[in-house]
Amino acid sequence: MASDEQVLLMSNQLQAFELKTLLLTPKVHPVTTAAAQAPVPVSPDGSLQPQVLYEASDDAGARYQLPRYEWNTVGGRHTSRLRLRTADDDPLGPLGWLNIELLAVHAVDARFAMRTLEHTATLRLGYEMPVVAAADPAPPTWEGQWENTDAATRGMTRLLIGRRADGGWFMHGFGKCHPSDCDWGETTAMPSGDALTGVYAFGFKVTTLTARRSGQTLVVDVLDDYTDADGRTDRLSNYVMARSVAAAPAQPLIWEALGPLNPLGGSMHRCTLPFHAQEDYDRIHQIITSPVHRARLEVVCKATIGQRTWQQWWLHDRPAVAPLQPDIDMVRISPAVLSTLRTQPLAVAAAGPRMPAIASLRADRASTATRALARGVRRPHHNPDLDEALSREETARVLRTLPRRVAIDKKGRPVLVRREVECTQSLACTFDPQADGYMLDAPRDPSQAHVLFKHDLVAEGQSVTFFQDSLVRDQVYYEPQEFRLARSDASPFLPSLVFAITDVATESEALSYRVRLAFQARPHLGQAFLLLARQRFGPAARLTALTPRSARLTLGVPTADGAPPALQERPDAVIRFDEGITDELSLDEAQFVRLAAAFQSPAGIGMQGWVTATISDGTQVDIPLVVSLKDNTGSVFDPQLLRPDPDGVPGHHVVTLRNRIESPVRVNGVHPQELGVWTDPATGVAQTVTVRPLELPPVAAVAPGQTLDLRLAVEPAAFPLLSVSPALDLDIQPDLARLMGQLTVTEAFTEATFEVQVSASPLFFGPGALTSLRVKFDDGPVVTLDAGTLVQTVSLRKPVVARILGLEPGYRYRLVAVDARGGERVHDGLAGVGHLQVTLPQE
To answer: Domain boundary at 214, 243, 272, which?
Structure first.
């Protein structure tokens, strides 16, 4: 298998990016935060860290840095606020706001001219949630190990509360002493209403402890009653205790986006999150004040950096970089040389001569492999004095993944390319209500615990755990049933799978190439569990995948020799349960062919694996991952059109669904579902609204662009149904010839050609309609149709992917519709197979 070293795709504008970023943006390459010719920081390995000095691309004496963010304070007091609306605020505006103010701190180095790296920053809040059984009204009231939230306290430091075998309560307290805490010992405790009281008799004083729960904290009043002989004045102390971090069990982790961090001038930055419901305000109040939640703030920074790398995979078949920038050379290496370098080990003499200077592609005569490299390189000039030596390990790595085409500068180094990178900074986000009370307005009910209620739902012999927020009841989290290949929500609604076919050589009858693929999978719940969840939590429930404490991906990758898939740990995979799993890997020619065959098989499964996740109780679960073109997450139909059923029966409706994807879709079944509770205004009776199918769906699949009518019955019939999303069991029948053309970037073409007849209906043209339609094929030809020319035949070059997989050749094109006033409507990302009957995509 090819190396999984980092590989960057290149554009003619010298922008570089990883293949998997195409899954997150509809553009061919991401928009960077720096202009094409603007100076950038040069990062040797492509990473970005705060307060690290990076050399400027335009000045060796200048250094860029990303600032480190920290909480802003004035006079030792935080300037961030969680506040409610006052009489001076708009009465129709938000109920409250969370204002977070951070300070950008820069490193100082007098040796260099310092520059701040331009970047964007967004905030998100991460926190843990205690879990209790759904039947329990609240977590245990007092029991557990508690610690003083004030680490500098001179009074009580810890308090253990528990039950004895006879059911009675006890307290075990500790006080501040040096070098270790004083052990007060154990004393009997008695409950009284919402309080638990224990008494210590120390001889010179009697200490009474009264503990009450306040949200996720324990408030303890300590009354010291000194004897007359001691002479000191009695003292009442108040302590806020939180559950011991060491004793607290692992809890589910939740992330919430807060918004952008905006500069205010100088080094000050602010993010503002409005609240419109009291429950949301109370929830955030508990999260940032209770140590139980272990809240932390993450600052996600994105910026453009410069990097030099040999792993250059050019986006187009014939890059035009060299003519655009005269100081750049395009070095070409013959396929035979590449084959030799990748299959034979690097030969080095025993005496240990100087390593081959791959940085300038100059040959060291002691190495057979680099002698072949020298013969395969064609470049106009070379200065051997500018060569840079690499270690043996670095040389071997470069040779393993050396591409067929490399751009270098006049010093023989890889050309400087720009790429967008991300850096995350983390800040503790827990505030003491006593010391930091000025930051907070009081919640409506500070005693109400913020927990997750655990529900185990069972369907079809499987069990899935759901967690309901105790304060915001329509927010429900779940552990995914499995992960499936995602499908984009934007036109053309493709599966989140992309291939880069690079280093294509079609000399004589031979064909050689390399393949890089990336995919994104999202959490999936079957219709049975979705229906159960709606019944249990209500039709308005927001279902969100719960982030585990840790997770790792194991993937079965196709083998080249036909053996069972090879299981691989994927340490570089990005695993976010709320956003999905993204991974990128390399395949050789044989592996790619086997993967395509797997996608075409009856099961349609290209790759399988599993995510091993550590969940809230510390146990591990294995969640299946399926990369298939038949079963995806995401909608395959346009928003439905609803109308009354022609049979005239009250409560009968027809829903029209339109297939918006590139492949046929078969509807195997329609599930009954509940829409919630509705009160009939005529009778005042509350009834559960249900929807059920009136007939079986048709056996035939729905072709791309075609529609399907489903007849549904709503009970009670008087319910005013405005819209409905039917609960469907679907089966996608992937059109691989069309899909592979759309999912492949850096496409190359063979010299073989095929003909496509392009036609359009005369109804497109005429007064008040269009004047022309232009079809621009990726291969280069342009066809213009109008009222006088309704049919044209064009010759296209056969794509490499069609030759590799033995498919009917597909093609990609752009459609430009021109109206009588000269206005143009452009439709990008279109694809076809066979003759092209032009249609106008729906907007």
So the answer is: 243
